[in-house]
Amino acid sequence: MDKRHTLHAIRSSLAQRLSLTLADVACHLPRAVPSRPLTVMGLSFPSPLGIAAGYDRNGLLARRVAALGFGFNEIGSLTADGLAQLEPMSRGEARLGINLTLDARRSAADTCAMLRKAWPHADYLVLNLIGPASAPLLSHAVRLRNLLAALREEHRQLNLEGKRQVPLIAKLRCLPKQVPFLLASMLLDLKFDGLLAAHDPGPPATRERYRAWQDSKQQALACEQIESLRRFCGQGMALISVGGIQTANHLQARMDAGAELVQVHTALLHQGPWLARHLLR
Fold first, then answer.
1. Statement: the pTM of the whole predicted model exceeds 0.90
2. How far is C-alpha 49 from the geometric centre of its chain's CA atoms?
3. CATH number for the 3-280 domain, one of 3.40.50.150, 1.10.1760.20, 2.130.10.10, 3.20.20.70?
4. What are phi and psi of 170, to 5 degrees?
5. What residues in the chain have per-residue pLDDT under 70?
6. Are 24 and 43 within 8 A, CB to CB?
């Protein structure tokens, strides 16, 4: 990593910590927030807008983000070690998702054990297939399908034994001319509850990329991708969209395209903890 990238990484880390601290303080301030309740995957959400994984990685805010207008908060992405270090989650009205790192170096048994540890804490679970640790799995379709099938079966048993339904979804990269239809087909066959489409290529989250998302053509392209996935998946699978949402119009356009839920991350860093109030009006 060159000096420029190192400096950017330091700045991003500081900005992330400051933003999280401000959001933590804001959660304690009494303030009216908009409510747009809905039911998705059998779960009731206070609003369709949530916080993406990577922002509140270790669950500092957890379910308290409902006080800011968010309907859900996805913590992680977590490994087995990260799960072991989690503190008890704070109470609140927002739904809590736990994003799990799928590491190609780990066995299916170890990965199932990780899912088992996360299940009691989560309202929904996410298998992260966009991180570098999972990249080798994407080039081995048989191994990936076997792993996802094992995790789906472990998840089914947990829901039966625990007598509550914790939806299971997978997070997939969804870029121009790279809509993940083959992976979506795999999820449909295995009866996953939802698909989280990530429209951004990932870190580093530069100011240039943030400004690029203000281009209506780029927003329209993300909506086209969601529309394509909705046609392909039908109505039986929930769709969540993340990447580039900065305004109320962006949020509504993704939902009009077929996303039931929408997540934000970088916009929180740029616009502050009251972002949900502006987007949900």
1. yes
2. 11
3. 3.20.20.70
4. -125, 145
5. 1-11
6. no
